[in-house]
């Protein structure tokens, strides 16, 4: 029986995502008050896995999670889980739209409902909570008829609230990506995998990023994410988060990472793991086959050295 830490209280989007995974749903659960606490618990060995949001299709990267993985902990991603995000305006039973003076939620969720709040509650105060579920719980505890929370159907049911307005997110195609992280081990390749790395340049010079990207292009490795993050050392000093199709056990990926380390800079490996997103498997297979043939050709030539 594994122990998994994730963002509480009960009813968060994180819990919804975790419950889609049968083995994680059956594990022992430790609910944390914040994302840093989740990752700290996994890094310290208090739990076997930490489970956290890392990216939203509307708001982008969850910086507090990403920066902790890059700069604070040596944790490896074990899997990713992607779920659709549906946000609802919740209130105490009988609360009317006209009575709402405050809207409580996790700031990322509030930002995803900006257009709705501007159109329907332009004068309402926005109050930050540690999670959407914490917002719903706090509203239920306070019995504040002048407040509403932005949250999930799960939290609405758990805390006895009404849905004042459903599906208030600004974009219908709203998804959040979660990752499970652990101290040890890289999952075996499945044939449909993603690898995440962080590249720290040795020097800030013209064309340095192009040189890094050329390593992937030369091997026909598709990138699914490229993002710069400040290294926290100096203004203008950035590292690059790169997600790519393939597994470190794949010859092409291993060769590419070797070349980057040898020629361009330090690499922090964040993991190779099964992916939920579809990629170009045919192109990847063809590139791998061509690379294997090329390797075989050069090895045949090298075996002839010294035989004359």
Poorly predicted residue ranges: none
CATH structural fold name of one domain: Alpha-Beta Plaits
CATH superfamily of one domain: ACT domain
CATH class of one domain: Alpha Beta
- The H-and-E topology, N to C, reads as EHHEHEEHEEEHHEHEHEEEHEEHEH
The number of distinct β-strands equals: 15
Looking at this protein, list some descriptive labels.
single chain; 308 residues; alpha/beta; D-Maltodextrin-Binding Protein, domain 2; Alpha-Beta Plaits; six-stranded mixed beta sheet; five-stranded mixed beta sheet; 15 strands
Question: Which helices and strands occur, and which strands form pairs?
Answer:
Layout: E1 3-7, H1 13-18, H2 22-25, E2 28-32, H3 35-43, E3 49-56, E4 60-61, H4 63-72, E5 76-84, E6 88-91, E7 102-105, H5 107-111, H6 114-120, E8 125-128, H7 132-142, E9 147-151, H8 153-158, E10 162-165, E11 175-182, E12 193-201, H9 208-218, E13 223-230, E14 238-245, H10 251-263, E15 265-274, H11 281-303
Parallel strand pairs: 1-2, 1-3, 7-8, 7-9
Antiparallel strand pairs: 3-4, 3-11, 5-11, 6-9, 6-10, 12-14, 12-15, 13-14
Give an overview of the whole structure.
With 308 residues, this protein is α/β, with parallel strands linked by helices. Among the domains are: 88-165, 3-Layer(aba) Sandwich (D-Maltodextrin-Binding Protein, domain 2); 186-300, ACT domain (Alpha-Beta Plaits, 2-Layer Sandwich). 34% of the residues lie in helices and 30% in strands. It contains eleven helices and 15 strands. The chain has helices at residues 13-18, 22-25, 35-43, 63-72, 107-111, 114-120, 132-142, 153-158, 208-218, 251-263, 281-303; strands spanning 3-7, 28-32, 49-56, 60-61, 76-84, 88-91, 102-105, 125-128, 147-151, 162-165, 175-182, 193-201, 223-230, 238-245, 265-274. The strands form three sheets. Strands 1, 2, 3, 4, 5 and 11 form a six-stranded mixed sheet that branches. The chain has a five-stranded mixed sheet with strand order 8-7-9-6-10. A hairpin with a 3-residue loop joins strand 3 and strand 4.
């Amino acid at each position: 029986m594994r122990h998994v830490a994730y963002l509480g209280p009960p009813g968060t989007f994180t819990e919804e995502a975790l419950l889609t995974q049968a083995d994680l749903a059956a594990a022992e659960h430790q609910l944390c008050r914040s994302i840093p606490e989740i990752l700290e618990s996994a890094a310290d060995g208090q739990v076997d896995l930490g489970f956290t949001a890392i990216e939203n299709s509307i708001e982008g990267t969850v910086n507090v999670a990403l920066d902790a993985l890059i700069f604070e902990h040596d944790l490896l991603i074990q899997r990713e889980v992607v779920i659709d995000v549906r946000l609802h305006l919740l209130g105490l039973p009988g609360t009317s739209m006209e009575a709402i003076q405050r809207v409580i939620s996790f700031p990322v969720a509030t930002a995803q409902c900006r257009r709705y709040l501007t159109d329907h509650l332009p004068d309402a105060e926005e109050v930050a909570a540690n999670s959407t579920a914490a917002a719903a719980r706090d509203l239920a505890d306070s019995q504040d008829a002048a407040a509403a929370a932005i949250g999930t159907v799960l939290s609405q049911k758990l805390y006895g609230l009404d849905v004042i307005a459903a599906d208030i997110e600004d974009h219908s195609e709203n998804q959040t990506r979660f990752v499970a992280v652990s101290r040890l081990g890289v999952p075996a390749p499945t044939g449909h995998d993603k690898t995440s790395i962080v590249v720290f340049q040795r020097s800030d010079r013209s064309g340095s990023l192009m040189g890094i990207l050329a390593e992937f292009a030369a091997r026909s490795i598709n990138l699914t994410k490229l993002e710069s993050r400040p290294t926290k050392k100096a203004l203008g000093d950035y590292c690059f988060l790169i997600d790519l199709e393939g597994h470190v056990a794949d010859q092409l990926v291993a060769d590419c990472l070797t070349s980057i380390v040898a020629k361009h800079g330090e690499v922090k490996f964040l993991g190779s793991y099964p992916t939920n997103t579809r990629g170009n498997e045919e192109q990847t297979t063809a590139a791998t086959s061509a690379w294997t043939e090329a390797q075989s050709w050069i090895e045949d030539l090298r075996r002839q050295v010294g035989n004359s």
